[in-house]
């Protein structure tokens, strides 16, 4: 068996075991199989790991309950997953935002009109907030003008340099979110950008309180979705997923999931996610950290 096939099946099996058998993976399920859905998940470290662990993998299991037999959930490094999604008809990407993909030039469209006939996405299920974190013992950043000349760590493949381009900072791309936090804590960079709730899990794993950040002044806000190439199969899947998200919110199960991870659901459940909207992208895209 080719190494790539062994690695892919290994990732599937690891996720199935981590999910207590919730995902039924196998080589017979693929993006081009009638009725099946291939979801590419973006591995960026602690919160979505290739071994099937992490907050977003657990969230995927919750969102996809009832869809297991027809889902192939494959975890890839962030850039590889995005590239494979763009290049492969019939695939989906989790978690993402079409506005981000359009602004990055990966799909047709612009930041304010990224949903075209070829791409569709679910209701949002998380409202992520992007913040600047400063070194422990220093003041949080309330004014972006103060980052001029400072060194800022951000996630490899993210849009941070574009987003903050006018403020004259120096940017260092880091592939792993835990490594990025360790650079900040060891004072090897002046600041880092990171998404909440993701950064909360990272700091907890390191056994330290969150680095200073201005809670009332996010650099950006992003609604996260499942996005797919448009087809009868993916549209039907997203219609079911939309209903699933609405039910999880209305029943309190999504809130309980967040509370079970010691995060405030009121800060992260998107407004209007139970009433059919908003289904358009958030102001910016995900992974701006």
Helix content estimate = 25-40%
Question: Roughly what fraction of the amino acids lie in strands?
Answer: 15-25%
- The best one-word shape is globular
Radius of gyration using CA atoms only? 19 Å
- CATH topology-level fold name of the largest domain: D-Maltodextrin-Binding Protein, domain 2
CATH homologous superfamily designation of the largest domain: Periplasmic binding protein-like II
| Top CATH class of the largest domain | Alpha Beta
Q: How many DSSP E strands?
A: 9
Structural class: alpha/beta
The topology string of helices and strands comes to HEHEHEHEEEHEHEHEHHH
The largest sheet, given as strand count, sense and whether it forms a barrel, is: 9 strands, mixed
C-alpha end-to-end distance: 38 Å
Number of domains: 2
Query: What is the helix tally?
Result: 10
Architecture of the largest domain, according to CATH?
Answer: 3-Layer(aba) Sandwich
Summed over residues and divided by their number, the pLDDT gives a mean of 82
Spans with pLDDT under 50 lasting ≥5 residues? 1-32, 274-288
């Amino acid at each position: 068996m080719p190494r790539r096939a062994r690695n892919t099946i290994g990732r599937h099996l690891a996720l199935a075991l981590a999910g207590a058998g919730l995902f039924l993976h196998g080589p017979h399920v693929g993006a081009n199989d009638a009725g099946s859905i291939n979801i590419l998940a973006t591995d960026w470290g602690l919160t979505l790991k290739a071994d099937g662990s992490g907050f977003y993998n657990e969230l995927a299991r919750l969102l996809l309950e009832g869809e297991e037999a027809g889902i192939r959930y494959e975890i890839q490094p962030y850039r590889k997953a995005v590239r494979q999604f763009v290049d492969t008809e019939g695939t989906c990407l989790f978690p993402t935002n079409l506005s981000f993909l359009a602004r990055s030039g990966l799909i047709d469209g612009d930041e304010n009109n990224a949903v075209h006939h070829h791409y569709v996405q679910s209701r949002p299920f998380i409202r992520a907030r992007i913040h600047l974190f400063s070194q422990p013992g220093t003041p949080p950043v309330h004014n972006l003008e103060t980052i001029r000349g400072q060194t800022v760590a951000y996630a490899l493949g993210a849009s941070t340099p574009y987003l903050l381009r006018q403020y004259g900072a120096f940017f260092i791309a880091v592939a792993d979110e835990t490594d990025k936090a360790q650079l900040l804590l060891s004072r090897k960079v002046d600041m880092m950008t990171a998404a909440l709730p993701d950064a909360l899990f990272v700091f907890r794993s390191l056994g330290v309180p969150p680095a200073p950040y201005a809670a009332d002044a996010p650099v950006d806000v992003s609604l996260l979705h499942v996005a797919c190439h448009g087809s009868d199969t993916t549209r039907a899947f997203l219609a079911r997923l939309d209903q699933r998200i609405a039910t999880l919110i209305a029943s309190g199960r999504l809130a309980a999931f967040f509370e079970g991870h010691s995060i405030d659901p009121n800060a992260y459940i998107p407004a209007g996610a139970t009433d059919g909207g908003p289904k358009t992208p958030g102001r910016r895209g995900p992974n701006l950290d």
